[in-house]
Specification:
There is one protein chain. With 232 residues, this protein is mainly β. It has a single domain, classed as YVTN repeat-like/Quinoprotein amine dehydrogenase (Methylamine Dehydrogenase, Chain H, 7 Propeller), CATH 2.130.10. The chain has no helices and 20 strands. The model has no long low-confidence stretch (mean pLDDT 85).
Length: 232
């Protein structure tokens, strides 16, 4: 286990992610600058740090197979180079502007875009290697999408109204997999099993996303904002 120490005044951690090889972690704090900091997991030393700006960042992710980082939040998506954290804002262009609830890497070679982000307007946004929006796709129901999971063949999306959607990597063939009594805050797919964290802290798990059952409810009245399981 490695412990990372942030400077005074950072207040707390809003989001975090670990690289595919497990060698780096990135965290977003809740200071006024919403700093994004990357750490080396072996030593605990800081690799780079950049200010995210005055608007809240709610999610952060590594690109598949690299140390490049993307962050999503209020009115923006930002990209950070893996070597020095050089910060570049995502270019929306003529597409609808919105807040973003989640972002995930698709892989540098993905033809539909390197990154996919979930919009509060119920749309998914794909960014290419030039950080420009290259495609926008409306999800089945026009409700805010607040969680994402990129699987080997599908993109899983969780909605604020409790619906779980699945679609192809290019956004086609969107279908509703199941509906729950509260918002789908977190999704984890591993080794054929799916786990969901809901807004009322309920954890659901199952092999088939269309037939998931609650397995536990966390203590307290808080929401389940993050989730992971080992597939067992």
């Amino acid at each position: 286990m490695c412990r990372f120490k942030l400077p005074k005044g950072r207040r707390g951690i809003r989001a975090c992610a670990i690289s595919d090889d497990g060698k780096r972690s990135v965290v977003v704090d809740i200071s006024n600058d919403h700093c994004v900091t990357c750490f080396d997991n072996a030593s605990g030393n800081k690799v780079w740090e950049q200010k995210g700006g005055p608007d809240t960042i709610v999610d952060v992710a590594f690109q598949k197979g690299t140390y490049d980082v993307a962050a999503a939040g209020v009115k923006k998506v930002q990209f950070f180079a893996g070597d020095d954290g050089n910060n570049r804002g995502g270019i929306i262009g003529d597409h609808d502007r919105t807040n973003f609830g989640s972002i995930r890497g698709m892989g540098e070679s993905n033809a539909n875009g390197c990154w996919v982000a979930a919009g509060a307007n119920g749309q998914l946004y794909w960014w290419d290697s030039q950080r420009k929006v290259c495609k926008v796709q409306t999800v089945c129901a026009k409700k805010p999408i607040i969680s994402l999971q990129v699987c080997s063949k599908k993109i899983m999306c969780g909605s604020s109204n409790g619906d779980l959607y699945a679609m192809e990597h290019d956004g086609s063939n969107c279908e509703t997999m199941c509906s729950h009594h509260d918002s789908v805050r977190a999704i984890c797919m591993k080794e054929g099993k799916c786990a969901l964290g809901l807004g009322d802290s309920t954890i659901c798990i199952g092999v088939n996303p269309a037939a998931m059952k609650p397995c536990m409810k966390m203590h307290g009245d808080g929401e389940a904002w993050g989730l992971g399981h080992d597939g067992s």
